[in-house]
């Protein structure tokens, strides 16, 4: 019971601190002024929390040919928890193509990801046949990783991209 009273007193204290500043706030009085604004868009998701993220993913099921939506999902990926990250990658797998902005941005982060994240994005690259020189070089850098699991994923991706062992060795030694 003591804990409950302490929490109540904290609430009262915070209200007491906030109340003086609330007295100076402008009050809304009828008639309210409403401004109409037109937005032309296929999809509009307001909010970047868990609900907004899930809404964007669900809305994007059939609209993942939008570069802006793909990049917005990727931006959320960096901050999301594991289940949301998984959903984002799954949705990007369904896209008809990956935007160049998403490829460039994700390529820069390859070396920072853990084994699961790296594996997901290498699978995404394989699904969309992303094997340009810059991507191959970025994956080649991962071959130097001390974590053998991560290095092996990079090697397997390069082999699936029809890169010879000699070329892989050259990428590793760059």
Can I get a quick summary?
This protein is mainly alpha-helical.
How does this structure look, described?
The protein is mostly helical. The protein has helices at 2-22, 50-59, 67-77, 82-94, 100-109, 115-127, 133-142, 148-160, 165-172. The protein is 63% helix and 0% strand.
Sum up the structure in keywords.
174 residues; mainly alpha
Could you give the topology of this structure?
Blueprint: H1 2-22, H2 50-59, H3 67-77, H4 82-94, H5 100-109, H6 115-127, H7 133-142, H8 148-160, H9 165-172
- Assembly status: single chain
Task: Bin the strand percentage.
Answer: under 5%
Which spans of ≥5 residues are poorly predicted at pLDDT below 50? 6-23
The tally of helices reads 9
SSE run = HHHHHHHHH
Shape: elongated
Mean pLDDT over all positions: 79
Query: How far apart, in Å, are the first and last alpha carbons?
Result: 66 Å
Structural class, judged by helices and strands?
mainly alpha
Radius of gyration: 24 Å
Q: What is the number of strand segments?
A: 0
How many domains is the backbone divided into? 2
Q: What's the main sheet like?
A: none
The share of residues in helices is 55-70%
């Amino acid at each position: 019971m003591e804990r409950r009273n302490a929490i109540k007193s904290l609430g009262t204290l915070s209200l007491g601190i906030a109340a003086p500043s609330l007295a100076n706030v402008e009050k809304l009085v009828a008639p309210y002024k409403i401004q109409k604004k037109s937005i032309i868009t296929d999809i509009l998701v307001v909010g970047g929390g868990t609900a907004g993220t899930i809404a964007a993913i669900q809305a994007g099921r059939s609209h993942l040919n939008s570069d802006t939506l793909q990049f917005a999902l990727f931006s959320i990926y960096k901050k999301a928890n594991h289940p949301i990250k998984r959903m984002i990658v799954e949705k990007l797998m369904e896209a008809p193509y990956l935007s160049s902005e998403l490829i460039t941005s994700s390529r820069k982060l390859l070396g920072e990801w853990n084994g699961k994240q790296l594996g997901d994005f290498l699978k995404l690259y394989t699904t969309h046949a992303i094997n340009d020189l810059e991507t191959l070089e970025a994956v080649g850098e991962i071959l130097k990783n001390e974590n053998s699991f991560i290095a092996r994923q990079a090697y397997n991706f390069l082999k699936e991209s029809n890169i010879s062992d000699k070329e892989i060795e050259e990428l590793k030694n760059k």
